[in-house]
Structures are given as structure tokens and as C-alpha cells.
Amino acid sequence: MTQLVLEQALNGLQFGLMLFLLAAGLTLVFGIMDCINLAHGSLYMVGAYFVAAAAQAADSFWIGLGAGVAGAAVLGLVLELSLFRRLYQRDHLSQVLATFALILIANEAVRVIWGPQPLMLNPPESLAGPLEIGEFFYPAYRLLIIGFGLAVAILLYLLVAKSRIGMWVRAGAANREMTEALGINVRALFTAVFVFGAALCALAGGLLGPLLAVQVGMGESVLILAFVVIIIGGIGSIRGALVGSLIVGTVDTLGRALLPTLLRALLPADAAATLGPALASILIYVLMAGILFFKPQGLFPARA
Amino acid sequence: MVEGLLEVRGLCRRFGAIEALKDIDFSVDTGEVHALIGPNGAGKTTFIHHVSGALQPDAGSVRFAGQDVTTFGMHRRVAAGMARSYQITNIFLGLDALDNVALAVQGRPDAGSSFRFWRPVRSETALFDEARSYLEQLGLGSKATTLAGNLSHGEQRALELAMALATRPRLLLLDEPMAGTGPEESARMVELIEHLARHVTILLVEHDMDAVFRLADRISVLVNGQLICTGTPEAVRNDAAVRRAYLGDHL
Amino acid sequence: MAFYRPAPWQKPLSVALLIAALALPTLLTAIGQEFYVGFATRVLIFALAATSLNLVLGFGGMVSLGHAAFLGAGAYVAAICQQAGINEALLAFPAAMGVAGLFALLVGAISLRTRGVYFIMITLAFAQMAYYLFVSARAWGGDDGLPLTGKMAFAGIGLGGDTPLYYLALGCLALVMLLFGRLADARFGRTLQAIRENETRMEALGYAVFRYRLAAFALGGALAGLAGALLANLTGLASPNLLQWTQSGTLLVMVIIGGVGYLYGGVVGALILLVLEEFLVGLTPHWHIALGVLLLGVVLFAPKGVAALFGKRHG
Ligand SMILES: Nc1ncnc2c1ncn2[C@@H]1O[C@H](COP(=O)(O)OP(=O)(O)O)[C@@H](O)[C@H]1O
Ligand SMILES: [Mg+2]
């Protein structure tokens, strides 16, 4: 039992950190540009495809990861300059429509280029096996992801909380007009944030690639989770994104793993079997509704 | 002591580091015109927001007509008899003047429910007849079918006032009704307010000192979120602290 | 945005369209294209669904990205009714509307406390929650959905074959459009649009803004439920896919293409999108790309929707 709980807790942490990579970029784009980007999940998908394709070509996971992230950054740059730049000033509806169109295009384009079958992405060979800590076994690759996620989270925190660029970004999220009035090139800042967000998407997609299948549509389900994260955390807040990611990651993972067992102890087997999976899959939404009921602006509102 | 129509006690409000309102005690008596003056950024608009219910205080209470309305949202205070005009003109630019006022009449509890799904609103002559009378009262009778967005600035200010009146308030909160109007329009607005003051109690925030001293029965002075003095125009004019803190910078 | 005002030509045009729609099945049969009656029914049903969203979005100003949840709920209620032995649409359809409306009331009561981006995303999340609920509900078929054993009956008359369902859908749509047109011009519609334009001002005029919004949201949900019940009869299946957020996105796209806040925006949008789809599918298997590019074109070059190309908003 402790083995199970510990393993699931680590899985939750790992999932939460990956969500954070997605949510960080998303929350900044939402918060600063006030732009709804439904296609953020598509960047994640395309990023994963880039990584998988490059890794296959180079026969190295690490080269693939680097090339894929770079490729996604370039794609982000092109998208920002050609499309998103025009969308910032538009209303939310136009943004929804345009980015919905991007999803259609991205899904179909991936199908055309790489085919309908999922791509395989192998973890680096040295990390393929489990790691043994005393009595406890845990896949080495998952530990690596946790390490990676933590490192990026710390880096991002330092960047946003401590650096000058981060100060501008936070200022932009809290009050855009003021930031512009201070003479900061908000346009360039926006571009940089968007590109950075795209790179983080690809990083998450590439790292998760060996665990999940790299396939069409993988972006949509994760996109909604990222939305839940930034709603819970408060739009525009990096700290909120981190806390929200960890909450959603652990609650979702632990809920799925433990809730059915728990219910079986409490309810007749029949009811537990029906209710368990249902409850587990909606747990985070219930949580989100609860949080929003008391804090409509999320846990860490970026705008006072 | 008789309770005033509006009684504000110990009202405090912070915006982050800014203490916008510090422990305000304030009252408006039935029938009077009570002016609130103070330099820009003193907190006058913020105060009006708290009286009207647009913002909730950190501490303190607001009583209106003998009832504690501190926890009431804006629409409940309006239903209780409070109406406000905005410093920045706030009307429906896509509707004509008459429709704007009719909307205000329609919002009144005694005008019936707005959960009516079938009858075209245009056929409800009672609404529009009453709305027209407010427009005429404010000299906008000939502008009834003009799109609000096409009215002059002064006319828009007057329309704003007509909408507030159409809620049949006992207390009218006017936030700088003269803001941005020319001297001629200002003079007309002063006359209007003078006329209104015969029927309704008014809390007036205004920068135009001539208007304030002409209209007000009592004046309160707000500086840096603090109420430094309340009294008759004479008393306020001669108050040393007021001269130092406020009039000194301006006159 | 301007306020809705019925144009003088609207009534004759509506009547003419209705007559044309009434004659359509006969016409299609005459030229040997009965196949398209089913397609036309689909258009009518989605026109109804998109119109229900237009009430919420175009008139209420609430950008809901979870509207498909109510469509799906309606479809499931119809299927569940049939499973329980209630095969009469006169019973099952009101039940579908009631359940979808109550569900919308609940979702709205929480979501409407938020604004802007938060509202968009919380409605999305609620729909997703409903989606997962149905996916994991084994009693109702889980992933596979709950099939209908056949089309239901309306006032005892079976809806089998394509034409009866077509007329039922047409009747529902016509009634809803009539109601929609009336309420848009009545007190409620005025109030709703004014709230869309300036919420604070309406509050300051004494309107309990939340209540009107919630009522519109619930009414929109109920009408979507009706569309869902019809759709279940058309496709013979209540599937969780109906609740997926891409379905909500599609409804939104319809309203935007057709014209947000125009009475006929939902109808026009559903017609255009479904016909376009039908046309593109025949052209290329990768029609999603073409559709996506077209949508991008609409956003960038016809931001007010197609209905807006026909002149100003009714008056
Ligand atoms: N929503 C707000 N957030 C932060 N500060 C505010 C807000 N509203 C007002 N303030 C601050 O409160 C002070 C009073 O503002 P205001 O009431 O508009 O003054 P006045 O109407 O007397 O000119 C100002 O310093 C202003 O910057
Ligand atoms: Mg002010």
C-alpha cells in the first residue's frame, strides 16, 4: 500500500510538473496579452512530433529533444508574427475562432505529414530501467522528468520573480497600459513570451512522449487540464500556475489510483465499480468549481 | 439626534498600499444638497462607489433610510432609493435617448418585472410616456429619437441625469456632473440641479467651486482619503485647515 | 454592438423561408434526392442548437465554450427515456429540455460569478466534466454511447423514415425562432442586451444582472437540450462525443460565422458550416485544413460574421 501511495504521489508530482510547463506559457499569454489560445495544446502536440521525428532521424533522444524544442520555438515565432500579433487587440470570440481553426489545421497537417499511426519515442537507453531505492522501485526516466520539471520550474521562477525581463512580464500582466507607458517594448516582450511558451510546450511534449503515445489529438485533453490549472491558480500568475499544476497533477493521479480502492471499502462492489472511475475523472473539475465558487479569480489573482 | 437619510460610519478602504478612504464618518440629511469636494485623487469617486455599493468597504457601515445597506449590492441599493450618475458618461450609446431613459424606468420595481418574453417593449406606452417626461424635465424633449452616441457632451450628461431620476431616487449621487462641459452647459446644469434639489436629496461631488458654493447646503472636504471638515459653505470657506490643505493649492 | 430591432422585411422573409422549408422534402423526392432530407434535418437541428447558443452568446454576451454539454444532455435524456419505455416525444423532449435547462442553471450559477476569460474556461471545464461522467457511465453505454432502438413517436405518430423527423425539427426550429424574435424585442431581450453592453450601468439602474444572465443561460441550455433530443433521434445514438469541447467549439464557430447577436445568426451559420463541410468532404479527405483556413479568413477579413455582410443589424 505504501509502495502504491508513494509511487502514485511521485507520478502525480511528475504529471503536475509537466502540466506546469504547459500552464506557464499559457497563463502568461492569457494574463499579459489577454489572449485566449486554444491552440496551445496543438503546440504541445506538434512539439512532441518534432521531438519524436528528430529523435528518430538522429537516433538520439537528447538531440531530438533539443531540435524539437528549437523547431517549436521557430514555429511559435512564425505564428506570433503572422497571426497572434493581430489577435491580441481583438475580442475573445475572434481569438477563440482563430485558434480553433489552428487546431483543425494542426491536427490534419500532422496526420498528413506523419500519418494516422502514433509515433514511437524511446527514452534514452541508460534510463530505460527502474531505479531501486531500498525496497522501492521507480522508473528512472520518470525521475528524470521530475528532475527536469523541478529545474525548469525553479529557473522559471527565478526568471519571472527575480530578473528584469520577469519584472516587465509581471508588470505587463498586472497593467499593460502602464507598462507600455514606461517605454517597454511590449510588442517584442509579447513575441518573446509566446515563443518561450511554445518551447516549453515542446519540452513537455518531448519529455512525455516516451510515456504517452505521440498522436493526433493528444493536445486537446491536456489543453483542458492546463486551463483548469491556470483557472485554479489565477490567470497571469506563474506562482498560481505552479501551485495549480501540482494540485491538479496529484489530485488527478491519486484520485484515479486510490479512489476506486477507497470506494470499494466504503460501498457495495457494484456501486463502487460504477462510481469510482466516474468520480475520479471529474475530481479536478469539482475541485475547480469549488475553488472558483469561493475565489472567482483563482488562488493567486495577478490583477488586484 | 435624528438619523440622516445617509449615514456612513467608520468607512475604510485600501487599494494595496494606498489607503483610499480612512475612517470616514459622513451623513446626508433629507432634503439637503451636500457637496463633497477635494483635490484630484482625494478619494471622492471611491467614496461614491462605496455609498452606491459598487465597491465593498474593508471596514465600516453604510445606512440608508434607516436600513443597514452595507452588504447590499448596487441593484438593491437602487431599489431602496439611491441613484447615481457617473463621472465618466455611462449611457447606452446604441440606443436613442428615449430608450435609455425607458430602460431606467423599466428597472424600477414598481414598473413591473423585466421577465417578460412576448410583448414588444415598444408597445408599452406607459414606460415611454414616463421616460419622455424625464427627458422634457431635463430639456431633452426634442432629442428623444436621437441616438445617445450622437448627442453632444452636455446632452449626454443631462441624459445620464435623466436616467438616474427615472429610478425615482430619494438620494441622488452625482459624481462631477459638470465634468468636461463648457461654461454655458455648466450654467444650465447648475440650474437643473437647483431645480432637482427641490424634490430630491443630493450628494454632489464637484470641482467647479462656484457651482458648489451656489448649490450646497453643507460641504465636506476630503483630502488624501480623510474627511477634514464638514460645515456650511461659510464655515468651510473660512476653515483654516481647508484653506491650507485644499483651497490653498487651487485659489 | 447595436440592439436588435426587427427589420420590416424580416417577417415576410421568415414566412417565405418557412414555406420553402415545408416544400423541401417533396422537392427533394421529386428530383430523386431523398438522401438529402436527412442532411437537411441535421442542418435544422444544428440551426436550433446554434440559435440557443446565440441567445446566450449574442444577446447575453456570455462566451460559453461548454454549450455542447446541454446538447449532449438532451440527447442522453431522450435515449434514457426510450430505454425506460417512454417513446413519446411529447414527454421525452420536454424532459430533455428540463434536464438540460436545470443542468445549465447549475453550471450558470457557478460560472456566472466569473467574468471574461474565466467564464470561457469554466464553462469549458464543466462541459468536460459532463463528458467524462458520461464516458464512465457504464449503465449508459460508456464510451460507446447509448443507442436508440428506433426513432421515437410524436403524439403517437411514429417518426420513422426521414421526413417526419424533418418536419418535427422544422416545427421546433420555427417555434423557437418565433419565441426568440419576440423575446429579443420584449423587456427581457432589451434587458439582456443592455447587460451585454454595460453590466455596471444596468446594476446601477437597479437590475439584478445575475438573475437575467442566469435565466438566459438556462433557457439557452434548455433549447440546446431540445436540439440534442432531436439529434439523438436523427443519429440513433446519444454519444459522449456530443459533449466534447470540440462540439462546443463547432457551435461557437457556427454562431460567429452566421453573425453574433443577429436573430438568424445561428441558422445562417449552421447552414453555411454544414453545407461547406459536405462540400469539402467530397473534395478532399483533408478538408479540415481547408475549413481551418477559411475560418482564419473569416476572423481576419469578415470579423462580424456573414449575416453582417447583408447590411446593418436589423434597423
Ligand atoms: N480600483 C483601484 N485600484 C487601485 N487604486 C485605486 C482604485 N480606485 C481608486 N484608486 C486610488 O484611490 C485614490 C482615490 O481615487 P479617486 O476616488 O478616483 O479620487 P477622486 O475621485 O477624488 O479624484 C487614487 O489614489 C486612486 O489612484
Ligand atoms: Mg473622481
Largest sheet of chain B: 6 strands, mixed
What letter string, H or E per element, gives the SSE order of chain B? Answer: EEEHEEHEHHHEHEHEEHH
Give the SSE order of chain C as H and E letters.
HHHHHEEEHHHHEHHH
Question: What's the number of domains of chain C?
Answer: 1
Bound molecule types: adenosine-5'-diphosphate, magnesium ion
Write down the overall mean pLDDT of chain B: 92
What share of the residues of chain C does DSSP label as strand, in percent?
A: under 5%
How would you portray this structure in words?
The complex is a heterotrimer of chains A (304), B (251) and C (315). By secondary structure, chain A is mainly α. Chain A has helices at 2-33, 40-58, 61-87, 92-114, 140-162, 164-174, 176-181, 186-208, 218-233, 238-266, 269-294; strands at 130-133, 136-139. Chain A has a single domain (2-294), classed as ABC transporter involved in vitamin B12 uptake, BtuC (Orthogonal Bundle). Helices cover 77% and strands 3% of the residues of chain A. Chain A has a two-stranded antiparallel sheet. In chain A, helix 2 (40-58) runs antiparallel to helix 3 and helix 5 crosses helix 6. Chain A starts with a helix and ends in a 10-residue tail after the last helix. Chain B is of the alpha/beta class. Chain B contains 9 helices and 10 strands. Chain B has helices spanning 44-52, 74-80, 97-106, 125-137, 153-166, 183-196, 209-215, 233-238, 240-250, and strands at residues 6-15, 18-28, 33-37, 59-64, 67-68, 82-85, 171-175, 201-205, 218-223, 226-231. In chain B, helix 3 (97-106) crosses helix 4 (125-137), helix 3 runs parallel beside helix 5 (153-166) and helix 4 packs across helix 5. Chain B is globular and about 60 Å long. With 315 residues, chain C is an all-alpha fold. Chain C has a two-stranded antiparallel ribbon with strand order 1-4. A two-stranded antiparallel sheet of chain C has the order 2-3. Chain C is globular. Chains A and C meet through helix 3, helix 4, helix 9 and helix 11 of A and helix 5, helix 10 and helix 12 of C. Bound molecules: adenosine-5'-diphosphate (ADP) and magnesium ion (MG). Magnesium ion binds at residues 44-45, 87 of chain B.
